[in-house]
Amino acid sequence: MRKYETFFILDPDLSDEANAAVDEKLKTVVSSNGGTLLSYASWGKKKLAYPVKKRIRGHYVLMEYAGGPKLVAELERNMRLDERLLKFITVKLEERFDPEKEEARRGAAQAAAETEEVTPEKESFPVVEQEEEQLSAMDEDVDASEEEDES
Amino acid sequence: MAMRSKRRTFHRRKVCRFCVDAEMKIDYKDSKTLRYFVTERGKIVPRRISGNCAKHQRVLTLAVKRARQIALLPFTTVHTV
Lengths: 151, 81
What we know:
The complex is a heterodimer. Chain A has a four-stranded antiparallel β-sheet. Chain A has one domain: Ribosomal protein S6/Translation elongation factor EF1B (Alpha-Beta Plaits). The radius of gyration of chain A is 17 Å and the shape is globular. Chain A has helices spanning 16-32, 69-81, 99-116, 120-135, 140-150, and strands spanning 2-10, 36-52, 55-67, 85-94. By secondary structure, chain A is of the alpha+beta class. In chain A, strand 2 and strand 3 form a beta hairpin. Chain B is mainly α. Chain B is 43% helix and 0% strand. Chain B is built from five helices and no strands. Chain B has helices at residues 2-8, 17-20, 31-34, 47-50, 54-69. Classes of the chains: A alpha+beta, B mainly alpha.
């Protein structure tokens, strides 16, 4: 078992149901090919650095999972066939996946998040603003979706 | 020789930002950090300008290239306008 992450861009104009359908489909691909899904997180809608399939914005999603190389091949095949997905990238995070280590890492991350919760807003909001400046003029509803993700 | 010593006075020692700040991680998903190391045109800033050490520059280059693949950073700005 290896640990992978797949970062992909969904069509930003999809309805919530369509998004859920894609989520469901990818999750079943992972589980039916002997993989374990570790996390599945939406990164919100962002402006793309260049147009992809004639779209200038995209809905980023990050998925972490453990599995074999066959799972990655199958997942990428599905992603290529699916027109709702604009682009994806799969990166191998660890050669040997150790569930116990993952548990420990997750526990540590949670503890860190809890201690940081005292001052999360002051730290996280300027970061978003900076990024917007650099990405040059994002739409208002993009801001809204990003804020939702952070809360 | 005189010229060279004169020029040397302008040297400012650059340090690798990733070595100085251990908290700073290089991640292809973190376009905000990566943007410091690409030019306005989207080219990767060379080591002699940015002051990165060889090790971190290698990791950074890979991260920028991955970020380009997933449309977080531009390959170029010329054709996308």
